[in-house]
Amino acid sequence: MLAVRTVSAKSLEYVETDKPEPGIDEVLVQVEHVTLCGTDLHIWEDDYTSELPLVQGHEIAGTVVALGPQAAGVEVGQRVAIDPLISCGECRACRRGRANVCPNLVVLGCYCDGGFTEYLSVSAKRLHPLPADLPTELAPVAEPAAISLEAVTRGRADESDTVLVLGAGPIGLLATLALSDLGATVITADTVPDRLSMATDMGSDGTLLIDPNAEFPTTELERLIGAAAPDGPDLVIEATGVPASLENALRAVAPAGRVVQVGISAHPTSFPLNIVPFKEIDLLGSRNSQGLMPEALALIDRHTDQVRRLITHRFDITDLDAAFATMSDRSQRVGKILIDLPRRNA
Question: Which helix (H) or strand (E) covers residue 219, if one does?
Fold first, then answer.
């Protein structure tokens, strides 16, 4: 079978290797589609904690082609999305149902070989059958959608809330879609106008173009939220990972509001410490998802047209170099990039 390894910074190796056999409780999946995210780009650039060489790809969908002797819950021929998170099941976080923050977490395509291969053997517990009418090519988006749903869930969002989403990258856009689906009023903000047009496609009730050099919150934000939230949004989801954006979130949120930090960065931030107790803000982190892949697939199934518009580029697996180059090109309008693995004879 074909597999593609990232062997060093911006260097891929296309190899023919043996097709795996499923283990006792594993399933063999013929991979059909993978989508790229920012983490993939960092790994390709060798700017991540992953060890190379590595078969990347963690947003994965395909078809079950073989079962291990004790694999349960799926059948040969089923189309599935793969949850790439593998937790230890024994640590404090796992015992409390928070396996998404397991300190021993392994992620397919990030810390062990993943989906840039024709066949992948994976635990049956990691597979989620697709809704009957959902195109397989959209199913890899369930993984980032589950991350967005985790942020929405952590923020305790409901239909009565006015929510500000800071950042209109894929996680912010999918959070916008999930909040709109929930019935909340959503304002999506970004520094890039093209991204805001995508937010409108995802159901945002209003968009805000942020000037990074201006004071925040702005009078334009106050106009957008209007009488519904005169003291500020009930919930802010910070989805950029830009340090100053967290301070913006804390300044903008209403007293007794909630701020969810889902954007990731290793850079330090600073803000007046008294803002958190004076407004009694719930400041929450959000990472991965707590088993929300089925809900993510259902969300995509309800909004296939919007999710399809989120995919701005499509490449064959043999053009993976070009896909990464496109993703790294800041002059291009990039949403999600879809990678196809055409079927060959088994």
Answer: helix 219-225
pLDDT of residue 330: 83
> With b meaning 16 or more CB within 10 Å and e meaning fewer, what string describes 122-148?
bbbebbbbbeeebeebbbbbbbbbbbb
Cβ neighbourhood burial of 226 (10 Å; 0-12, 13-18, 19+):
exposed
Mapped onto helix, strand or coil, the DSSP state of residue 306 is helix
* Distance (Å, whole) CA 79 – CA 3: 21
SS3 146: helix
Q: 44 φ, ψ to 5°?
A: -60, -35
Buried b (16+ CB within 10 A) or exposed e, 73-83: ebeeebbbbbb
Q: Is residue 53 helix, strand or coil?
A: coil
Q: What is the DSSP letter of 253?
A: S
Q: What is the DSSP letter of 102?
A: -
Amino acid present at 189: A
Helix (H, G, I), strand (E, B) or coil at 220: helix
- Six token digits for residue 10: 């911006």
pLDDT (tens digit per residue) in 222-260: 999 998 999 999 999 999 999 999 999 999 999 999 999
